[in-house]
Amino acid sequence: MLINKICPMCKKNAFLRINSDQKKEFKSYACYGGLIQEKLKSFNDFEREFVKTGYCPECQNGLFMKELSRGENHFFTQNDIRDDVVEKFINDIAEVYVDENRVLDCRKAILSPIAEKLSVNEKLLYLYEFDLENEFEVDLDTGKVTEIK
Fold it and tell me: What sign results for the dihedral spanned by CA atoms 9, 4, 13, 117?
């Protein structure tokens, strides 16, 4: 799942990748509130700050003089999305997965070999944009998209 916010400082569109355990914590925090440190226990400091304020990691670094370690970085921004690759993907799937009523079968498209050229973050963003996050998951190591049973 992705959490999307526009950073109030730099105005970048930032995304945070969260796993299924974090998703449960986030939903509970969003619905019932509480102290963020108690509710979002599996989130690191940068992730909690992002959820609470929307500050992207770069702006948090500037504000708090704290560096996000590589292994803990589950963020990406719109700048990390390769627009040319995504545009080619959309054009290619439109030729194959749009029916006579001009409706895109977005489920078949993300499972198709055409989607293999997308990065993990691009696939996650596709699922987010088409509201398919509860139906499909992306293996963060291999980039393989599978249906959630």
Answer: positive
